[in-house]
Amino acid sequence: MGIILGENQYGKAENRVVRIYRETPRHEIKDINVGSALRGDFTAAHTDGDQRKVLPTDTQKQTAYAYAKEKGIASIEQYGLELARHFVDDYEPVDGARIEIEEYAWERAVVDGKEHDHTWVRKGQEVRTADITVEGKGEGQKTWVIGGLKDLVVLKSTGSEFHDFLEDEYTILQPTTDRVMSTSLVAKWRFTTTDVDWEAIYPAIKQIIVDTFATVQSLALQQTLYQMGKTILETYDFIAEVKLSAPNIHHFVYDLSPFGLENNKEVFNADDRPYGLIQATVTRDDAPDAGPAWTQQMAWLG
Ligand SMILES: O=c1[nH]c(=O)c2[nH]c(=O)[nH]c2[nH]1
């Protein structure tokens, strides 16, 4: 019987890198969480404990911090590309690298009616994400970039319906033409080029998502998600695919009748679980192959 080593990768997860730009009295901040994973021929490390081809996870971590200084973090996509290319291009045993980044947004504190130069308040907003994969060396090198966001919590108090659904003997859900719709959205979009103004495209796509959520008279969360993906693809021809995942944060009209009170969709129980989970991929029909773009390292084995 032979035993063989299957898929493997290794790296440093969740480096919390905070980069301050302090060249002028008005400082700037980038607050990120970076994970790296290297793929290649690391068989000897597994079978014989031979580390000669292993660039330690500690070195990967140190590189993440050093690159924050040396290369800067103009955007998480640019910084992730620099890191991934460095590991693949500069180390012979490494033939693939995956960099996953989350960015936490801060806004300037307002003190005496003015934006403060070096104090921020963490934005309770969404987290921006980037997943970068580089494979192969030299001419044939391939690169995949996925931009995205998570924890974008949105709610609309009307403009959402759900009716005409399949019913059986277990159906108790009442149809509605006017309900609260709320979700904490995860969205990821796959670029077909790296020639992108990363800092401009992110707010533009987020705006499409928010506009669509607000303005579509929604017959279901499924329809809203599809419209978000479709509009992004129709607006940007260099995006091939959009993946969306949306928990339906149910808002149930609370029964106030025991207190002799009317509840005309004014008081709700925002239930945290269970939640409907609606997920969809929207793709251009001529989209180039996704290859390993969606393969997530950190979610891989939990
Ligand atoms: O937007 C919705 N989609 C569903 O599939 C669904 N199912 C359900 O019970 N409520 C909802 N809402």
UniProtKB/TrEMBL annotation:
Binding site for O2: T57, N248
Alphabetized PROSITE patterns for the sequence: URICASE
GO biological process, one term: purine nucleobase metabolic process
UniProt key word Transport: no
Organism taxonomic ancestry: Bacteria, Bacillati, Actinomycetota, Actinomycetes, Mycobacteriales
Name of this chain's protein: Uricase
Enzyme Commission code(s) on record: 1.7.3.3
Function: Catalyzes the oxidation of uric acid to 5-hydroxyisourate, which is further processed to form (S)-allantoin.
Metabolic or biological pathway, per its Swiss-Prot or TrEMBL entry: Purine metabolism; urate degradation; (S)-allantoin from urate: step 1/3
EC class (word): oxidoreductase
Organism in which the protein naturally occurs: Williamsia limnetica
Residue positions binding 5-hydroxyisourate: T57, F162, R179, Q222, N248
Sequence similarity: Belongs to the uricase family.
Positions with a binding annotation for urate: T57, D58, F162, R179, Q222, N248
